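Team,

Forwarding the record for the chain on the shared tracking sheet. I've put the sequence and predicted structure together so nobody has to dig through attachments.
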Amino acid sequence: MKPIRLVAFDLDGTLIDSDRDIAQAVNATLRDLGLPLRSLAEIRTMIGRGARDLLARAMGSEDPAAVEAARARFVGHYAAAPVEHTTLFPGVIEMLVALREAGLSLAVATNKPIALATVIIRQIGLEAAGISAVAAADEVPERKPDPAVLALARQRACPEATPDQTVYVGDMGLDIDTGRAFGATAVGVLWGFAPDSVRERSPDLLIERPSELVAWLKRARKAESA
């Protein structure tokens, strides 16, 4: 195993608990369209594959034009209050600071639109904690689990890092698939939106607390230098 240089993270369900703000924007959109509202529990199961997929499922629609029109409304509602209820998961800031102090580059690779992702990352304190680059699905041809967004995050944060010097951390099975498709070490977290789907993918590392990632990376570095 080569020395790890880059740790990239999924955003929703991994670094931030954002389901209430997402649900609020989804339901505002459905209300605009005269469609039945969805419960928070329902919307949690729809998060992860980007706004279009989320809205198609919430609307029960397969009409691309209708979904795209709804997406514009959703982004407007979400951008108006992106962190009203959103919080960081416990231990996230401490984890990022420790990783940054260890000399690692930190990035986010998300299926959230770049305009929303950058605002949220700045407002909630992730940029100040060490996230140096963001890549989003609307900047690449394919969404996760295609690894293009992770490749873009690597290019922006630490272009010298090879895939096997990269760790990708996420809370869903598609994040594990994304990391593996890129050739990175895939780490699954159990505090997010889809812990069962993470377990099903048998990631390289499965963690219950952010501090466990720091401890694992410290052990890996010690083994590399031995």
